[in-house]
Design brief:
Helices cover 23% and strands 34% of the residues. By secondary structure, it is of the alpha+beta class. Strand 10 and strand 11 form a beta hairpin.
């Protein structure tokens, strides 16, 4: 006659604890994004089509921004921060922004150190030209997710130059989230908080 194995009393509490930790982690990720959208400083970036023939991949639209390319004298202070022979490929940089006369926020400075007071956006140095004349940045807002029925309309509007304004919420630490897409002040799509 086979003996019954005793039940392990710790399995149920361990499973419940693991489930609670996972649920808490997911809730934290969702809420941290919602806090940026709800409380972040609102800026407007001009967009540009990345590839007019293939803007749609699955259920997202690829977005590009002129502010992602920084060159000229604006890079001089950054070159001094880096030092001779150093590289910043894939490094975190902070881009100070100012609103221009056209309403779009534009880069005015870039640094490896977080600015103390100014409005800034955190970015990753995606590519650096060999002679450090150009810096190409990734703001982490290069995709706008939408449903498959809305995406073709957005793709068409971007290709035809009708959709050029991306409203972005920026957290105090420079983290950015896309808040809305609009054209000439008219909101076309708003990102829900949850």
């Amino acid at each position: 006659m086979a003996q019954a194995t005793p039940a392990k009393p710790f399995l149920l509490p361990a499973a419940i604890a693991a489930t609670l930790v996972l649920c808490g982690l997911i809730a934290w990720m969702i809420e941290s994004r919602a806090v940026i959208l709800r409380e972040g400083t609102e800026i407007v970036l001009e967009s540009e089509p990345v590839d007019p023939r293939d803007l749609l991949r699955g259920r997202y639209v690829v977005l590009g921004y002129p502010a992602q390319r920084i060159g000229g004298p604006m890079l001089d202070p950054l070159r001094a921060e880096i030092g001779e022979g150093e590289t910043i490929d894939d490094a975190t940089v902070y881009v100070t922004l100012r609103q221009g006369p056209d309403g779009y926020h534009e880069p005015v400075a870039v640094s490896l150190a977080e600015p103390d007071e100014d409005l800034f956006i955190r970015a990753r140095a995606n590519r650096v030209a060999h002679d450090m004349t150009w810096l190409f940045l990734d703001f982490g807002i290069g995709r706008f997710y939408t449903n498959e029925h809305r995406a073709p309309e957005l793709e068409r509007r971007m290709r035809e130059g009708e959709l050029t304004e991306i409203v972005v919420a920026v957290a105090p630490d420079g983290t950015a989230q896309i808040k809305a897409l609009r054209q000439a002040g008219e909101t076309i799509v708003t990102e829900p908080l949850y």
